[in-house]
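In keeping with the milestone schedule agreed at the kick-off meeting, the structural modelling team has produced records for the first pair of proteins. Each record is given below as a sequence line and a structure-token line. The laboratory manager (R.T.) confirmed that both were archived under the project's standard naming scheme.
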Amino acid sequence: MENNRIIESIERADYLVSKLLGVKPGEEVLIAIDPQTDMRMANACAAAALRCGAEYSISMMPIRGKDKALTFPKTLELAMEACDVFIGMTAASGAAIYNNRLKELIIEKRLREASVVLRTIDNFTRGGALADYEKVYTDGVKLQSIWRGKKHAHITTPAGTDLHMEMNQMEPIIECGIARNPGDAMAFSDGEVSIGPVIGSTYGKLVIDGPICYYGKPSIPVELRIEEGRIVEVVGGDANICKEIRRQIAEIKDSDNIAEIGPACMFNGDFEEEKKAMGTCHIAMGNGYYYGQPARSSVHIDMVQYDPTIIFDGELIVKDGKVVCLGYK
């Protein structure tokens, strides 16, 4: 009976490829996978591309793991140069979407991109995958408009986060399930509006009580001390996660950099669902190139905080996990 999940995959892939990505006859669709990708998802996307009259290629890359999650094989980078639509579907890491060359091609408006990395078939077919993405995107556009031009962010949470940062004066990035034009990017199944802080501007205390990419949900919230945009101390919390973060900072260049802020679907302990839940916030460490920074670490790790209060330039954006600037109470 489990193999019947292919039916759900086909339905969601058709929605993703034909509706959300708007794939057209004659376009080239490149699907990047790794050995852990659920092939029901990848094959369903390939078949959906064919039904749109497009060409497709599926490129399997090695498992990179969290320490080299931004490194593509050269053949895959060359393939990106020729495609119109790029679907990142690596399951072992986010390698398929945080590659620096991919971001350059998006900026140059040479392709559009869908992030389906680190997803299981449940993420692809259930929960957030069943959202009304026209509405999700509409909310994303509203958030982008509210964020645009804001300079200072202050984030607090009941768990103890008290963080300040200056924000890059770039267009806030919408990844809310629709990418129909060259230069667009989206994520499925979820949505976010995000931006990067100015290098060296973030300071304060970050307490992570939600899931951490690759590490899972900490048994005890993890506390980090931030100075001049860098993690300068892993104060305490879940012992295994603290040990791994300390190792990563010691061994991987620029992995201590604060790279991204993204206040966004289900609260189920799953990282890719929860980091995009409405009213949560995620802060990333590592590579910030996607978010207007020069830092080019080989890692990008998102960390979720629950029930945040977020203020931009004195304007209340989120209050105790409710996106009040959009009228949610």
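The second protein of the pair:
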Amino acid sequence: MKQRNFGPWYALPQGLWLSLFFAAPLGIIVVYSFLRKGLYGGVVPVFSLAAWHSLGSPILLSVAFKTLLVSVAATAITILIALPAGYSIARSKNQTLRLFLIIVPFWTNFLIRVYAWISILGTEGFLNDALRFLGLVDSPLQFLYTQTTVTLVLVYMYLPYAILPLFSTIDKFDFTLLEAARDLGASRLGAIVRILLPNIRGGIVTALLFTFIPIFGAYAVPLLVGGKDSYMLGNIIADQVTKTRNWPLASSISMAVSLLAAMGSLAFAWTSGRTASRSVADGNEDQGLPATQPVGISAFEKASP
């Protein structure tokens, strides 16, 4: 007797959820981006490309460039901090405690954490009070409302999103490979660069995607701790929706950001996958070994006397 396949029924709730709360809103944004702006806000059901033509304005391009710079800088700093942090947690005997300390900030509201930084970096904040108490400054310094402050707070906000996937990947890594590389003449840094990093590439890619994409669309952090020079695309979108009420332009900017983020993510993942496959193939050709040979070991074996 042929058994019935209940797989589609099991997937039905998830499919409905994604359709209602992801596909439908995205479809509305796509449609709005090709409509004409209403006289008092909203949209008029008339096809128009005016919103897409506005994407080439110098002001919008300048904000997009600044957004890209801040996003790249914040993501790079986040990954540079998350890599040693994830490695330290993976090698620690107190993984549960350290992971708990990483997750604790998630228990606090996002805005409360931002306002905590305002109370630290403000002119009457903790940092200025400490500097005046130590006699290092006479008048308060201006730490807030700069691109540096925006980058700092963004790194703090999204650091756990980079540490957790990196820790998950590093924790599964066979650390005896590092010892073997050291025995074959590699330095500690060389073993990490040529053995560890290629084998945790998947975690690095995930951490990059989990940090760069939300940072690129950040809204609250630039609004609260950044000045006019720190305006990002997320703030432009919010202003077009709430102040100017130009919904087609807001939709077109949102679609452009989403398309660029999706294309960048796919390109980065595809490039990383090809690089990993090529590294494995090159290592296997050196030793004539099957595809299960770990990445990077053959290079040290070839160089060893």
